[in-house]
Fold this protein.
Amino acid sequence: MIASMTGFARETEQIEGSELTWEIRSVNHRYLDVSLRLGQVFREKESLFRKILTESFDRGRIDAQLHYHASAQATDSGRLQPERVRVLREWAAAVQEMSPESAPLSVAEVLNWSGVIIADSADPQMLVDQAQVLLQRTVLSLQSQRHREGESLGVAITKRIVECRRIAQGVQSMLGEIEAGFRQRLLERVAGLDSTPDAGRLEQELVMLLGRTDISEELDRLLIHLRETENVLARDEPVGRRLDFLMQELNREANTLGSKSAHPATSAAAVDLKVLIEQMREQVQNIE
């Protein structure tokens, strides 16, 4: 099943009166780009959370944020972190040296700073374990959403594939008529000349001109690419890059079809095909 690269998931867990919340946003991106925002308690375990995300997704920009809100009871029984206070004092002194008019930090501001007080009731390892389980649950929720949107994208692309095939097969059925009309127009022009050209030479020139405007190979390749696009959509793996390549190939064939056109019907078909292929390409840009 194909998956979209856009989505949002949010999961919350209550732990001993405190609250853990993971929020994950994903948007389309050429590669996999993971960004994490963690509280002070969890920063040492960033590699653990990043590993879960990189193993769960193949493409897209993934922005994950972990919120931890300690309960009032836990805050009242918290422990002061002297090292954190010392670092804050050094930062404040450096700022005041660079900007003497800056106001000094108040006690309340120091106490409210992240990581200065750690609740006694909050076991850091237990919090990390719970955050890991909650992240996996949030990832599953996001994957489910991305697959649902991917399914809708697949339906939209399939509809356009069917329409492209209808147009291409319609042109194929007209090739004999188009070639006969082209040959007739050329013969009528030659008949209007004052001199009579050599019949053998005339036939050679006709064959060369018809070869330059022959679009049967382009139509065959276009139908092959459409069939391959359907096959790729049915795969149970990330297919975004392959679909992007197929859209380039389809667009190349449609452009060649238009440039070699010698009939209004084929010109109109080329334009319609390019519009449909561009619509598919825009959808493919969002597929993982």
